[in-house]
Amino acid sequence: MHNGIKLLTGNASKGLAKEVAEYLGIPVCETTITSFSDGEIMVQIDENVRGSDIFVLQSTSTPVNDNIMELLLLTDALKRASAGRITAVVPYYGYARQDRKVQPRVPISSKLVADLITVAGTNRVLTVDLHAGQIQGFFNIPVDHLYASPVLLDYIRQCDFKDLVIVSPDAGGVERARAFGKRLNASLAIIDKRRERANVSEVMNVIGEVKGKETIILDDMIDTAGTITQAASALKEKGAKKVLAACTHAVLSGPAIDRINNSVIEELIVTNTIPLDSKKEKCKKLKVLSIAPLLGEAIKRIHEESSISSLFV
To answer: Global pTM?
Structure first.
């Protein structure tokens, strides 16, 4: 790789950054991140970055606000250190679920976060599976929006399922599930549910034939796992032979791990956009796939100013 490229990370994505650095054949740039006793975050870049092409890899996952602040402060430090170009690599973009006003007097939080990242000094954003694709338009800088589907598809093909059905857990995910199923020559089913309030859902019906079939529930993220576990139960009640689940972002907050462990889901296939080391120990159903090669290849092509459209699968 060109000597001008440098990869930095905050505390959110150290493991993933190490894998990406190995793919690129470069070290992770040395940084120091500390906190004052009152919780203020302080960062320092420990290497010369003047004129360099910088990639800051940081998922804005739990603790969301601390990780966003680390990303902003790292970016500001790089800008003031005369970095040549700063690309924010955000595998998981927090606040993405708040992308519009769904009731009076609420913020559009994902737009605010986009403004903060831009104003901090970011020149470009690289992200994976935004919860709402239109968030790309919240930025006034270039956004490269990757999809983790090639990583998930490769693993599912290796499993050699018979008579597979891809299941969308709600109406909003039908397009994703249909595209996924098309690549696997699998049929489609839809869970018709009614959400009473945030993080609480009730499965109403299964649309499609699942009796005697192997099923995979596909979503972009799993948070408290209420939707996915209720969907799995509904599929089993309809006679599904096997129930698995797959997603890009395994948020897995609150009661998620217990719900998955106690559910009929046989395996939960996820990627490492969010660190999962501690959760893997608690949930033996987790199968974690690495997106490091996908991110590494995108970073390489951005640095070389070559096309990355072939990665938008």
So the answer is: 0.92
